[in-house]
Structure formats: structure tokens, C-alpha cells
Design a protein that fits this description.
single chain; mainly alpha; about 5% strand
């Protein structure tokens, strides 16, 4: 039950406080990662593996040591520590806080403001996006980050406790920093990208399943099965294809990066996206969190019932 209390506590803390505005631990971790990169970078996979180990393992080992020590003292201390750490690894409220200004600007017809707001969510060039492309970019970001910023951490927390959630979030952060196919990171970032792929494999598919169950199920399943294999990322493909199908909208397609429009497969089916699509995507992620909590609480209650039977 301490695990359930920690999950519920983390979700409530996130809803109440949102992401820390000052001194977020992930910001500090990013600074450390940049220093490690500066010292270890070389055009070799081995250098990337070494940098990943140096950056990730010490905080994860420290977290495991603290978790074990607190668990030996008190289950309440352990649950409190786990709740705070899990809270720091998820960003459910921040998804809505980033997406809402984009939807509001589109509703007001202020395309320039919408482009600026969506630029805080995505890495693509936003200056040339039309309203539909802005809405698509924001919706894709919400759906994908539902997995990266929420469900992945929840999955690994349930599996391995606080150290598992921290391992996932730090690995995901390094993938966002190093996991690019650019000349600088093609070899150095290989380990960060592959480890993130492995850690996300099961959470991404559970996220896609959640979207499908809570949206338009048949289209979500069809888009997941037929469109996801064509997507460049083995984990973002199922999440966004199922999410687009669940929402009944068309996403994907060409997008501008570094001044070049790069072709991407189509995702979903139905109507083109608009401001309302962004709002519905946020609601889909929130409902999916509710589903996960319901499953966890039900499983814990069933386990307790069987133990006392």
C-alpha cells in the first residue's frame, strides 16, 4: 500500500504545485550532463556509454541507498520520500500549462502568439506553421509527452520504486540532450537514444493502449497497427498514432526543422486539428492517468483481499 500512497501523493503534489519554478533538480542534472559531455565527448559510442554511466548511475545509486535506509526506519518516511521523488519526475500539470496558451491563442486568432507558445513545446521551426500545423504540433507534443513526462516514470516507479522512476527520467533527459543523429551526437548519443528506447518500450505501448481504450478505440487500434511502424521512433509512433486515432484527427505529415521541411508519415484519421484538439489531447492524458490510478488501486485492493482470505 505504501507504493499506492506514494503514487497518489505524487499525482496530488503535481496537481497542487506543478513543476518547481526554481531549482528544478532536472535543470541541475542537465548542467552536470553538459559538463560531463564537455569532458567525455568523442566521436565514439564507447565515449557516449561512459558519459551516460557517469551521469546517471551516481544519483540512481544514491536514491536507492536513501530509499532502502528510509524503508528500514519507517514505511511512512519511505512513502513520503518516494512520493516527492516521483513528483519531481512527472509533469502532468505542466502539459496543460504549456498546451493551454497555444489553444487560447488559436481561439483568439493570434497566430503569432500561438507560434511562440508552441515553440516552447516542440523543437521544430514554428515561424512558418499555419494554424492547423500549430495545432498538430501541440497535440503531438501532448500525446508523446504523456508517455515521456508521466506514464514512463509511473511504470518504472511501480516496477522498481523511486530508483526506477529516477533512472527513467534521467535517461529520458539524456536522450533529449544527446539522442540526435547529428554529426556531433550520431555516435556519442547512440547509447542515450538506445537506452531510452528500451526503457520506453513497454510504457509507450501501455500509454497507446490507454489512449485507445479511452478514445475512439477502433480507429486508435487501426492507426496504431498500420501507421506506427512507419514512424521513425519505435515508441513515439505507437503513442502518437493511437492518440491521433483516439482523438479522430489527422496528425503527422511534413514539418520544418532547421529551415528544411522534412517528410514524416501521416498519423490518425478524421478531421484536421484545431484548438479544440489540443484541449481534448490534454483531457485524454488526464483520463489515462485516472485509469492507471484506478488499475493500481484495484490491484492493490485485490492483493490485500487475497492475502487476508
Amino acid at each position: 500500500m505504501s507504493m499506492i500512497l506514494a503514487v497518489l501523493g505524487a499525482v496530488l503534489l503535481d496537481a497542487w504545485l506543478g513543476e518547481p519554478r526554481r531549482a528544478h533538480p532536472l535543470v541541475g542534472f542537465g548542467r552536470v550532463a553538459r559538463r560531463v559531455e564537455a569532458r567525455c565527448h568523442a566521436d565514439r559510442r564507447a565515449a557516449g556509454v561512459l558519459a551516460w554511466v557517469i551521469t546517471v548511475l551516481p544519483p540512481v545509486v544514491l536514491c536507492a541507498w536513501l530509499a532502502d535506509g528510509l524503508a528500514a526506519r519507517s514505511p511512512w518516511l519511505s512513502a513520503g520520500f518516494s512520493a516527492v521523488l516521483l513528483y519531481l519526475t512527472i509533469g502532468l500539470r505542466s502539459l496543460g500549462e504549456h498546451a493551454q496558451p497555444v489553444a487560447a491563442a488559436l481561439c483568439a486568432g493570434d497566430l503569432d502568439a500561438a507560434r511562440v507558445a508552441v515553440g516552447r513545446m516542440v523543437s521544430r521551426d514554428t515561424a512558418a506553421l499555419d494554424p492547423q500545423q500549430v495545432a498538430a504540433a501541440a497535440t503531438e507534443s501532448v500525446l508523446e509527452n504523456g508517455n515521456d513526462a508521466v506514464f514512463g516514470a509511473l511504470f518504472w516507479f511501480v516496477l522498481l520504486g523511486a530508483p526506477g522512476a529516477l533512472l527513467y527520467r534521467l535517461a529520458n533527459t539524456l536522450d533529449a540532450m544527446w539522442g540526435y543523429r547529428t554529426p556531433r551526437y550520431h555516435r556519442f548519443g547512440w547509447a542515450a537514444a538506445r537506452i531510452d528506447d528500451v526503457l520506453n518500450y513497454l510504457p509507450a505501448r501501455l500509454t497507446a493502449l490507454s489512449y485507445a481504450l479511452l478514445g475512439c478505440t477502433a480507429p486508435a487500434w487501426r492507426c496504431w497497427r498500420t501507421q506506427a511502424p512507419a514512424w521513425d521512433s519505435p515508441n513515439a509512433g505507437p503513442v502518437m498514432a493511437a492518440g491521433a486515432g483516439a482523438l479522430g484527427v489527422r496528425l503527422g505529415g511534413a514539418a520544418p526543422y532547421h529551415g528544411v521541411w522534412e517528410p514524416r508519415p501521416e498519423l490518425g484519421e478524421g478531421l484536421p486539428p484545431d484548438a479544440g484538439t489540443i484541449v481534448r489531447a490534454v483531457r485524454l492524458v488526464r483520463r489515462s492517468v485516472g485509469l492507471w490510478l484506478l488499475v493500481l488501486v484495484s490491484a492493490a485492493a485485490l492483493r490485500e483481499g487475497l492475502r487476508h482470505a
